[in-house]
UniProtKB/TrEMBL annotation:
GO terms for molecular function: methyltransferase activity. Coiled coil: none annotated. Keywords: Methyltransferase, Transferase. It comes from Streptomyces coeruleofuscus. This is Class I SAM-dependent methyltransferase.
Amino acid sequence: MAHDHDHDHNHAHGQGHGHHHGPTDIDWAEMGPRLESQAELFASLYERAMAWLAQEVTEPGLIVDAGSGPGVVSCLFAETFPGTRIVAVDGSEPLLERARARAERLGVADRFSTIAGELPDVLDELDYPADLLWASRSLHHLGDQRAALTAFAARLAPGGTLALMEGGLPSRYLPRDIGIGRPGLQARIDAVEAEWFTRMRAELPGHVAVTEDWPALLAAAGLKHTRTHTFLLDLPAPASERARGYVVATLSHMRERLTDGLDAEDLATLDRLLDPDDEASLHRRADVFVLEAHTVHTAVRAG
């Protein structure tokens, strides 16, 4: 349950899973390097979110990253909150191996630990309640989101904060008219992805449909909603090699997964964009950029 910074509905944009979901049987281990690179690309967004969280979460003893993926964000928490213990929780042991290795490299391993297992039940393995529980695009992978939020809330210390990153806006990587194919390609991909996301949710075990009013759901879990803020990742053209690589990986992933709803012309345009030998490809274009908006909601457990 990495937080694919997938476009998840953006995403799907998880990913840290790579903002685009594939079939529901996602192989997180195979996606590890891509998830890690993408989360690093988003580091500035996460750092701003953490500075915002630090305004109300002061000197936390324990921060839990629920759905940590390869641990990029978990390690940023360790750097942002010196002295705080960090627990990265994820369903994928191979991703947690990457998280532990990263903590070791960054010199924070002495206060960094991991727990492998499926959310939300795995949180019962925590030794202590959390002062901050961070769930970045992991909640929407759980069938009963309302029950999961209640379980998250139960793992908070009195006065503890739940920070939920869900929602935002669809990503943009290219102008509306890119000179090949019919203008508006990304908007049409968004529509196909929205249908995919709905199917993905419906196929989850124990799926319960809920209105995605996150502050209301947080309140229903017994928490007091405090703030909502949207953080922008704005990497203008011309894209860096890392940003360009992220766009190529994301659209490649979508080309594999979202073919059903796109017409032949759009598929042909995607193929040209992904062909390194094509002058119009993402590998060569000067107009590739990354513009994403991710929304964080916070809520506090009564002291």
